[in-house]
Each structure stands twice: as structure tokens, then as C-alpha cells.
Write a structure and sequence with these properties.
Elements lengths: L2 E5 L4 H11 L4 E5 L22 E4 L2 E4 L1 H11 L12 H29 L6 H18 L12 H15 L7 H10 L3 H10 L7
């Protein structure tokens, strides 16, 4: 059975979501955040960088959300969370899956971190975020999700950053992304994951 090392209010919810969709159980090891909202030292005993999520499977330790999602889809022979391989939509999906942490997360966190601490958000950071949210708006297209009505790996990957932005009321100028977040929250896997481990974003 997969062991999931899950930090509270973290990207680990992505992994729980996919496992719920696949009907696969896991041995979940939970970690509370410190008073400074950081990962505890105990996670550094699992991964040298103290990362979450991390999974263990057959003696292998696997980190990075996108890699974990791809690993689980391959392990359980799942093709329902991507468009058909070899199609233009498939490669668009793969680009979006990697885009979340390679490009979007850094830009979003430059707004999320000061907003979370009640500090002013630099104008340049807000402008950069708006450019990315416009890009995501185009990617959603007719929606309600990136590739129709069922969540893909890219949707699951994107959900965590979108949850943080919604928590801080940073989607009001991007109604299609706000509607996308509402649609994500109606997905059965999201519901199961958050019922099991709590919300993605910390409460107000």
C-alpha cells in the first residue's frame, strides 16, 4: 500500500484526490504545521528537503506532486485523467501539468505570501498574477474544467494554488477562474480528499 506523508494545508491533498478517484487506499502519515506555518522538522527525516507530499511505495521514495500524480496513474494503469495519448490535447495537458509548479506557483506565491500575512501586495506581483490568471482563463475555454467536465491530472495539480488564491479573495477580477474553482470543489475526488484530511487552504 502507498504511504503518503501529508503536511496539513498542503499539496498533499492533490495526491489524496487522485487516490480517491482511483479507489485506492493509502497509509497517510499526517504532519501539523509549526506556529510559523512551516513544515515540522519531522518531514526532514522523510525527505532531505522536508517536502510534502512524498510517497513511499515498495521501498521507493517519490517526491514532487506532478511526478507523484504521473506515477500513480501509471501504477494503476489509469488513462482517465489525461486526454488520449498522442493527441494535441494530450500535449497541451502535459504542458499545463508542468506549468503549475514550473511557472505559475512562483508568481502566485509572490502575491499569496504578503496577502496571507496582511501586508500590501506589490503592484508588479499583482500584475504578473493577473497575466497568469488570464492565461488560465484561456486554458479553461468552454470549461467547466480544463478538458471538459472531469478532472484531469492538470486540474488536480492546479487546484492547490487556486484554492489559496480563492481563500484570499484574489479571483474576483477573474470570474471564469472563480467558476473553475467552484467546479473543482464539486469533483468527487476533491470532496473525498478534503473530507478525509481537511481543506486545501487554511481557514480564515
Amino acid at each position: 500500500m502507498i504511504t503518503l506523508h501529508a503536511l496539513k494545508y498542503s499539496r498533499a491533498t492533490r495526491v489524496l484526490w487522485l487516490l480517491a478517484d482511483l479507489g485506492q487506499p493509502c497509509n497517510r502519515v499526517d504532519y501539523d504545521r509549526t506556529e510559523a506555518f512551516r513544515a515540522p522538522d519531522a518531514l526532514a527525516q522523510v525527505h532531505p528537503l522536508g517536502k510534502s507530499p512524498v510517497i513511499e511505495d515498495d521501498g521507493e521514495l517519490i517526491a514532487e506532486s506532478a511526478t507523484i500524480l504521473r506515477y500513480l496513474a501509471a501504477k494503476y494503469d489509469d488513462s482517465s485523467h489525461t486526454p488520449p495519448q498522442g493527441t494535441p490535447a494530450y500535449w497541451q495537458h502535459e504542458a499545463l501539468l508542468d506549468y503549475v509548479e514550473a511557472s505559475f506557483a512562483e508568481v502566485a506565491l509572490r502575491v499569496i505570501m504578503p496577502a496571507f500575512r496582511g501586508k500590501p501586495v506589490p503592484e508588479y506581483a499583482r500584475d504578473a498574477l493577473n497575466r497568469h490568471l488570464d492565461y488560465i482563463t484561456q486554458a479553461i475555454g468552454d470549461g467547466p474544467l480544463l478538458f471538459g467536465e472531469r478532472a484531469t491530472l492538470a486540474d488536480i495539480q492546479l487546484s492547490y494554488i487556486i484554492a489559496l488564491l480563492a481563500r484570499l479573495d484574489l479571483l474576483s477580477d477573474h470570474p471564469k477562474v472563480a467558476a473553475y474553482w467552484s467546479a473543482l470543489q464539486q469533483q468527487p475526488g476533491y470532496i473525498a480528499a478534503t473530507q478525509a484530511a481537511g481543506p486545501m487552504a487554511p481557514p480564515a
